[in-house]
Here is the input.
Amino acid sequence: MKDQIIEKAAEMFLTLGVKSVTMDEIAAEMGISKKTIYANFSTKSKLIEETAMYVFEQISKGIQNIRDDRKDPIEELFEIKDFACQNLKDKKSSPQHQLQKYYPKIYTTIREKQKHILEELTKENLQKGIREGVYRSNIPVAFTSRIYFMGIVGIKDQDFFDEGEFHINELTEMHLEYHLRAIVTDKGLKKLETYLTTNSTK
Here is the structure.
């Protein structure tokens, strides 16, 4: 039952936002009593914490599966971006923004885990791209991996990128293209432009 509650809470939090969803609404959606939820989670904060960790782990597993496919490094980053956007939903409720505002400790914990995963992922992607000749050999790998992560976090800041002006999927696409154009070789640029042209029609 605990796992089922977490799965339903994840679906509702991502779609409607952590602040907006009540324990009563989760119970009603599942057809169970609120007491059953509280028997498994002492507070809403505890449910949010475990749900955030569940979502993080699910995303991490999916990303690892993409990496294990050993795709072209440019294609790999686009697939990871698409996977993350699809699974995090990125609706107007801005679940990450609500988490940061109302549950800052949970947000900080998750962000640190994201930083570790993304920095490792980006470093390996950069090194692979350099070996394959699609990224420049003189890239400062540590700096580039960190600035890429800061960009991912930054585009979710509504003080800079208001959701009324930019859709988050559009932002992540532009951010990734911006990142890649800064580091590709001529060979990599051809692959990037071919990928963008091919996928713009889908």
Notes: The first helix runs from residue 2 to 16.
